[in-house]
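As the next step, I selected for study one protein, both as residues and as discrete backbone shape codes, as given directly below:
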Amino acid sequence: MATYLDLANDRRDDLVTLRHALHQDPEIGLQLPRTQQRVLDALDTLPLEITLGQRTSSITAVLRGTHPDRPSTDAPVVLLRADMDGLPVPEETGLWYASKVPGAMHACGHDLHTSMLATAAALLAERQADLQGDVVLMFQPGEEMHDGAAVMVEEGVLDAAGRRVDAAYGMHVFSALVPQGQFVSRRGAMLAAADGFLVTIRGKGGHGSTPHTALDPVPVACELVGALQTLVTRRFSIFDPIVVNVGSIHAGEAPNVIPEFAELKASVRSWSHEAKAQFRSDAERLARGIAGAYGMTAEVTHIDGYPVTLTTPAETDFVADTVADLFGRERFTHMEHPFAGSEDFSRVLAQVPGSFIGLGAVPAGIDPATAPFNHSSYAQYDDAVLPLGTALYAELATRRLARLAADRLPASH
């Protein structure tokens, strides 16, 4: 009997064609009408119950398993997720199928995720009689800082099959760091929480020739940037760290004018609720203290972003075992340390058990250590990994449903 990998390889041309079509036409944010239509076209002939998002261009599709041992009541449900949106990044790869949309690019590989899940849906439909429960296919817009997962959760994706999801799996390709075809994950905290930290230092404007008659917020803002880095290294344990990046400083418009205010915008990454709360308290006190020392005030705003991506250890071990059976034990790596990126799939994992899986997609012949990383204008992803991710999606759903169904069968069965 053909494996899911065999079936995925048989569909490789269709996989690549869909991926390239998506790559050439990236859309950004929560409304992706062209992307949504391409996915709907790919799913068109499959026996799916499809619901479209009300506030986004999301797609939720339910495939009902027909295995004879499917529990008659309370059948298990597994969710598979792919994000669909691109980034406001101009593409500089030079690929023949590069983005045709100025200033937009699938720089994070979501075109691969979408193509793999759409094709996995076809494989699962072909093996519908092997499914001992139901599969929810979550095609999500707005992962890139638009919190599309939260919207889909609010609109009921976790209960789309009529019962709460028992296990959920998401996948993400990497254009660097992880060798091609290698799968990675981590028990517990895998990705960071990502929040915003905004500070406005309010001084007193004046002429650049007489700074003593003004209150210049610019050097105060610069001092705060350095002080934040000292705060990170002296107030937080290296075993429960914080990463602060001040990505924007703005003050004034003319070189001979002392501005009224200076603004800082920073991202804050953490791996625990305790560290996040401590940073908010300490950083606010620091900003107000430095500004106050120079006779100025600081207005501080904290912006909640994505929470920590916490995988369920047992589900991550299940993923590792499944990868080992499909591709060999050496093809899965348990990450020693969490990664500082963030993901809104954390919204799903905060409510149901599951895991998040990385897949190396570095083009052949390129060193993963030096390849352009996700979000780069030069990031490239190899089509060779498409059948691998497709097969793993399908295998995870089939195997997990079987285990869940077995757990629910009467002992006398």
About this structure: The domain at 4-191+308-408 is CATH 3.40.630.10 (Aminopeptidase). The chain has a mean pLDDT of 95. The longest strand covers residues 193-202.
